[in-house]
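Duplicate of #3305? Posting structure anyway:
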């Protein structure tokens, strides 16, 4: 599988509602960057809906596709978390969480009905927020003398790097994310600045 230069995610949270035979499914799509982020968001939603019958979810985090989790939260196995994850994957989304809260309406929906309801609710929530394409960034640490600040920042700006951390003293140290598609160009430009030290962050 070739390395990607871009990935797809959402930047704004969204909510949508789906009803079937009295049961109400409220879906929340949220951007998340880490498992800790996910835990906070899930707790917020649980606090908002303490009387809900189920809080089912799926998330995918990171670029390799290996960090994901699904939960049926008491629904029959495979009827909630997997259909939600399927919606994330159909849009190739990562760093995204969808939680679907269910209020039981008294009528059993059966396995096909549940799969359809959770899938539909997740799909509606994702449709409510724009999908954004973001560059895959490689993190580098750059160290330089304060007098070189202008030259360094000019390259950072022209290449479109994101500045993640900075320490500005007589000797400066910044941590930047360089888009994979422009990495060679960035390295070439930084090499042109004398006495600049840079290394790939671990």
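Output from current build:
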């Amino acid at each position: 599988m070739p390395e990607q230069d871009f990935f797809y995610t959402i930047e704004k949270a969204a909510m949508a509602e789906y009803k079937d035979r009295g049961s109400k499914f409220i879906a929340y799509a949220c951007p998340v960057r880490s498992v800790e982020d996910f835990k906070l968001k899930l707790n917020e939603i649980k606090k908002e809906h303490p009387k809900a019958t189920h809080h089912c979810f799926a998330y995918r985090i990171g670029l390799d596709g290996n960090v994901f989790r699904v939960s049926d939260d008491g629904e029959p196995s495979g009827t909630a978390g997997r259909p939600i994850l399927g919606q994330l994957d159909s849009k190739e989304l990562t760093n995204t969480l969808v939680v679907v809260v269910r209020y039981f309406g008294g009528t059993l929906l059966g396995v096909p009905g549940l799969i359809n309801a959770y899938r539909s609710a997740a799909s509606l929530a994702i449709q409510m927020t724009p999908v954004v394409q973001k560059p895959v960034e490689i993190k580098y640490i750059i160290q330089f003398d304060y007098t070189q600040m202008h030259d360094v920042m000019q390259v950072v700006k022209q290449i479109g790097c994101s500045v993640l951390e900075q320490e500005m003293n007589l000797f400066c140290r910044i941590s930047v994310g360089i888009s994979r598609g422009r990495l060679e160009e960035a390295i070439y430009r930084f090499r042109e600045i004398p006495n600049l030290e840079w290394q790939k962050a671990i």
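Confirmed duplicate; merging threads. The chain is about 30% helix and 35% strand. The longest strand covers residues 23-31.
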